[in-house]
Structures are given as structure tokens and as C-alpha cells.
Amino acid sequence: MTGTVTRLSIYPVKSLGGFDVASWEVDAFGPRLDRRWMVLDAEGDFLTQRWRPRMALVRASLGEDGTVRLAAPGMRPVAAPQGGGPGRTARVWNDAAEAEGCGPDADRWLSEFLGEPCSLVFMPERTVRRIALRREEALGRVSFADAYPFLLFSEASLADLNARLAEPLPHDRFRPNIMVDGVAPFAEDAWDRIVIGDLPLVATKRCVRCVLTTIDQDTAAIGKEPLRTLATYRRADGGVVFGVNLAHQGTGRLAVGDAVRATPHGMPA
After folding, report:
1. Could you read off the pLDDT of 131-149 as tens digits, one per residue?
2. 3-state class percentages of the chain: helix first, strand second, coil last, to nearest 5
3. What phi-psi label fits residue 239: left (phi over 0), alpha (psi between -120 and 50 degrees) or beta?
4. I need a labelling partner for 129 at 20 to 30 A (CA). Which of 64, 92, 137, 147 fits?
């Protein structure tokens, strides 16, 4: 089964807005600098749009010097380095990961915009947060992403969903890293081994979707879609599913236009 990459998206700070790229390096963590930064509350727990929808209004981009730049309505942009500050423990779901502070400027900026004490941290190279096993297969490490380095779905899957909605939704509601064309709707559900360009990956699980998909990424307004419609035809154990999580096997580079070669479950590789 063959498709083509049509979109690559990077999210430097967990749960903040990201940006699209024409090509991007994949390192040991996954997409380079994807979700290597994270916002913590005063207790050291991660913050997310799931319970802080205002985070949708913050856009994160990368400077040529490797800093992350944050911009939001009514705020002057601020830049923060790749850590370098005091070490601390950052909690994300059930994991506790070693992180470094990114300086007081970003902390003050985020605290002002979000209306509560918070701080920005970075995951340094020495931190190893393991990916959950897949059929007892070790899959390396991951950044501050929920559990896996990549999320992929097809253009056809999004079109299928949008055809069922009164108002179509943009791709950014689902925060994919990779979108592909040239395959049937939800063909990705059955994928097992995937090669994109020259990079081998494995499908770890279908992605169970949460309330974040109901948050308008331009206004932070919360609605009922797409979860209400997905529940009518995409329900599985644990919730409604849309897209698949992937783990990479090696490093390299991905690009828009790359061929996507996938082997379904139960088929020889």
C-alpha cells in the first residue's frame, strides 16, 4: 500500500500551537525539537489544552539559534533557550522526567497569559523517557509527547469525517505530525510496518481522541465536535479513535512528497 506525505507539522511546546514544514530531521526523540519543551504548573505537573484551552492561542516557533519563540494575542513575543536553567522533575501523565528550566522571562510571560503561576522546561539530551512496549518490542524514547513520537492520519480520513459534519474542521484540531494522501479513508488503522522516504516506523496503536479536538485553535472556544460525530462510527475500547500513533526505528529526514509504503497487520513485511 503506497501513499504520499502531504503535510508535516511540528509542535515545539507540548499543547501549544505549532507550524508546518517542507522537510524535517528525525532524531532519537522523534521529530527534532517536537514537544521538547513543556509548560508546568506550580506543582510541577504538565499543563494541557484539555484543561487549559487558552493554551491554544499561544503559537510556538523555532529561532535560528535554537530558541523557542512564543507569541499570543496582546503579548509581546518572548524567546526561551533549550534549558540551561536549574534541573527539576517534570511530570507528564504517569511519567516523571528530568528537565531543565528555561529562564524567568518565559515563566513570567506564560504566567501572565495563562493567569496562574507556571514555568517552561526543556527535556535535555540526557533524559530518556521510554516509549510503551508494542507486542513486547522495545521502541526507544519519546519527548514530552503524550506517549509516542508521531501521530499520522490520511487526508481521506479527515475528508470522511468532515463530510459528516455541519461545519468542516481543519487538521489542526487533531495535531498530526504527518498527513498522507493516496490511501482510502482510515486505511491507516490497519497499518503495521511503515516506511516513509527511507525512514522505517511501526504503528503502535490507534489514537484515542480527547476533548482537545473540540477546541478551536484560533479562538479557544470549546464545542461538541468532532467527538460527538466520531462517537457514532469510530468508537473503540477506551473511546473514539482517529489517526494512528507511530514510533520510528532509526533517524533520518522526512519531507512532503515522500512515498509512504505500509504493510497491514497480518501481512508479511
Report:
1. 976 655 668 899 999 999 9
2. 15, 40, 45
3. left
4. 64
